[in-house]
Design brief:
Elements (H helix, E strand, L loop, with lengths): L6 E3 L1 H16 L3 H17 L8 E2 L8 E6 L2 E7 L4 E8 L8
Parallel strand pairs: 1-5
Antiparallel strand pairs: 2-3, 3-4, 4-5
Helix pairs in contact: 1-2
Length: about 100
């Protein structure tokens, strides 16, 4: 059995989640925003057991930079032997640009 890896969120990903929540609050459907955030966190948590389940981000083609698509969002993460770090949560149609 494979050992689970901790999943953490970078500040950039936390800011993205906050922006998503604010967007839905501004649209006066805060319950939808809260539900989506909960579902995104649930998807990210599954990476603890299946860290390589996401595809390699096509814009970079780097094996440890992966993403899972949860329409309309992309959860971009770095994966190594010890941990998974969610680095961005963006709308699927956005092109990825890392600092």
């Amino acid at each position: 059995m494979t050992e689970k890896r901790p999943v953490t969120f970078a500040e950039s990903a936390m800011s993205d989640l906050d922006d998503i929540l604010k967007y839905y609050e501004n649209e006066q459907v805060s319950d939808t925003g809260k539900r989506l955030i909960s579902e995104i966190i649930g998807r990210a948590a599954r990476l603890a057991a299946f860290p390589l389940s996401g595809r390699i981000v096509p814009e970079f083609n780097i094996s440890d930079l992966r993403e899972i698509i949860y329409p309309p969002f992309r959860l971009v993460y770095r994966c190594d032997k010890k941990k998974v770090r969610i680095i961005r949560v963006w709308r699927s149609e956005r092109l990825l640009k890392l600092p």
